[in-house]
Write a structure and sequence with these properties.
Layout lengths: L3 E2 L2 H9 L4 H7 L2 E2 L2 H10 L4 H6 L6
Parallel strand pairs: 1-2
Helix pairs in contact: 1-3
Length: 59
């Protein structure tokens, strides 16, 4: 299964509906650049993205 490099939009929106796991289920490996991670944490709002993306930091 091929991996993907994600931008912030799917991460923010899937995290807000509690379905961030779908990226991994559909694509296997999901690479999140540091700048995208930072954008998700600062612009993702209400801590949902921060909590769900902690394990993605530094990928």
């Amino acid at each position: 299964m091929p991996g993907i490099i994600s931008n912030s939009s799917p991460i923010i929106h899937l995290a807000k509906i509690g379905r961030l796991n779908l990226l991994h289920e559909f694509y296997g490996t999901v690479t999140v650049p540091n700048t995208v991670y930072e954008e998700c944490v600062t612009e993702g709002g209400d801590g949902v993205v921060n909590h769900q993306t902690t394990s993605m930091k530094g990928k």
